[in-house]
Amino acid sequence: MTVRVGVIGAGWIGQEHIRRLTHTVTGARVTAVTDIDAARAQDAAAPVDARVLPDGAALIASAEVDAVLVTSWGPTHAEHVLNAIAAGKPVFCEKPLATTAEDCLRIVEAETAHGRRLVQVGFMRRYDTGYRQMKKVIDSGRIGEPLIVHCAHRNPAVPESYTSAMAALDTAVHEVDVLRWLLDDEIVSAQVLTPRATSRRFAHLKDPQIMLFETARGVRIDLEVFVNCQYGYDIQCETVGEEGLVRLPDPAAVGVRTAASHSTEVLTDWVGRFRDAFDTEFREWIAGVAAGDAPTGPSAWDGYAATVITAATAEALECGHVVATDLKPRPAFYGGTA
Ligand SMILES: NC(=O)c1ccc[n+]([C@@H]2O[C@H](COP(=O)([O-])OP(=O)(O)OC[C@H]3O[C@@H](n4cnc5c(N)ncnc54)[C@H](O)[C@@H]3O)[C@@H](O)[C@H]2O)c1
Ligand SMILES: O[C@H]1[C@H](O)[C@@H](O)[C@H](O)[C@@H](O)[C@H]1O
Q1: pLDDT at residue 49 tops 90
Q2: Which of 89, 128, 273, 297 could make a disulfide contact with 120, Cβ separation 3.0–4.6 Å?
Q3: Contacts of 12 (CB under 8 A, 6+ apart)
Q4: Rounded mean pLDDT, 198-216
Q5: Ligand 1 neighbourhood includes 14 CB (under 6 angstroms)
C-alpha cells in the first residue's frame, strides 16, 4: 500500500520532508499540500504532482489523504492535530506538539477518547544512530546506573527574531525529549545560569545559557545552549554512570593531515547533522501507517512533557530560581500508572 500524505506548511522543514517522502522513503506519496502562503504551497506541490488545497481542514478531510504531516508554525499545530484525530487519521506533527500545556492536554484527551494512538511528534534524535547506540548501552547496564549527563547544543548563529526563551522552547526541547527517552526518567525541575554573554549576538539575547535539570531518580543534567557559537552545528552528550560512561559519537568525517595539523570537518546545520535520523524517523512512521499499526515514536504525552518542561525552563531563565516542572501523572494509555 502507498501511504498518501497531506502536508500542512510548506516552509523550510515542510519542503525537506516533502523531498524525503518523495525520494528517500519508499511506500509514501505526497498527494496534497497547503500553506497560508499559496504561492509557496504551489511551488512545493508542483514538483511532486500534489494537489494544493485551501487550508488544513480541507486537506485533512480529503479522500486523497491517508495520513497528515504538520510542519506549519508551532502555534497552529494543535488545531491541525485535533482535526486529524477527529478524522481518525494518523498525524505526524513537527515539534512542538502545541505551544501551551492546555492545548497539549486537549490533544492527549482527544487521542485517549479515540482509543488508539494516532499522533507522533517529530523528535528525530530518537532515530539518530549514535543516540540509539547510547540507549542500548545504558539499557544494558554496562555503565551502571546513570548519575550525571553533560550536554551541549550549539548552533553557529541565529536570526534577530530568535529570543532568549527560544533557547529552551525551540532548541533545548530536543535534549529534553531525548534525555527523557535515554534515561527512561522524568525531568522534575529546571534552572538556568547565564554566563558572560558572547559579543557575537543580537543585544536582546542571553547567549550562551547553562540549563540544569534534575530527574525523578536524582540524575543531574547540565546542558550548554550556545546558539551563536560561530564555528559549526555541534551536538554533544555524555552520560556518566556508576561503572563507566557513554558518549555520543561525532558524525563520521575524514581526518585530514596536512601542514603539520590534523583536522576533521564540523557540520554547520541541523539538516546535515540529523539527515539520516529524519530519514529513519519517516521510514519507520510510513511503514507503521502502511501496516495499520499505532505509532511507536514520540507520543502526544511526550509532546506534552516537552512543552511543560521547556516552559518551566524559560520561566527559570526569567526568575533565576529552580522551577518545578509539575507534570501531571502519565496516563495508563501512554504507559503510565495514573
Ligand atoms: N525537528 C527539527 O529539528 C525541526 C527543525 C526545524 C523546524 N522544526 C519545526 O517545524 C515547524 C516549521 O518550521 P520551519 O522552520 O519549516 O518554519 P517556516 O516558517 O520555514 O515554515 C512554516 C510554514 O508554515 C506555513 N503556515 C503557518 N501556519 C499555517 C497554517 N495554519 N496552515 C498552513 N500553513 C501554515 C507558513 O506560511 C510557512 O510556509 C516549527 O514548528 C519548527 O519548530 C523542527
Ligand atoms: O528549530 C531548530 C531545530 O530544532 C534545530 O535542531 C535546533 O538546533 C535549533 O536550535 C532550532 O532553532
Answers
A1: yes
A2: 297
A3: none
A4: 98
A5: yes
13 CA distance to ligand 1 middle (Å): 6
Q: What is the CATH number of domain 3-122+276-299?
A: 3.40.50.720
Q: Judge whether 179 and 149 are in contact, CB under 8 Å.
A: yes
Q: pLDDT category, 199, cuts 50, 70, 90?
A: very high
- Of 71, 120, 155, the one to substitute when testing ligand 1's pocket (max ligand atoms within 8 A of C-beta) is 71
Residue range 10-37: mean pLDDT, rounded: 98
Residue 1's pLDDT is what?
Answer: 84
**Cα 154 to ligand 2 centroid, rounded to whole Å:** 9
Distance 121 CA to ligand 2 centre (A): 15
Domains 3-122+276-299 and 126-269+305-334 share a fold: no
Q: How close is the Cα of 189 to the center of ligand 1, in Å?
A: 29
Q: Name the residue with cell 551536538.
A: 235
Q: Is the pLDDT of residue 264 over 90?
A: yes
Considering the entire predicted model, what is its pTM?
A: 0.98
The domain 126-269+305-334 having CATH identifier 3.40.50.620: the answer here is: no
Enumerate the domain spans of the chain: 3-122+276-299, 126-269+305-334
| Mean pLDDT taken over the chain | 98
Q: Say how far apart CA 174 and CA 181 lie, in whole Å.
A: 11
* Shortest-distance ligand to the CA of residue 73: 1
* Residue owning grid cell 534552572: 191
Contact between residue 117 and residue 107 where contact means Cβ atoms under 8 Å apart: no
The yes-or-no verdict on residue 139 having pLDDT over 90 is: yes
- CA of 97, nearest ligand number: 1
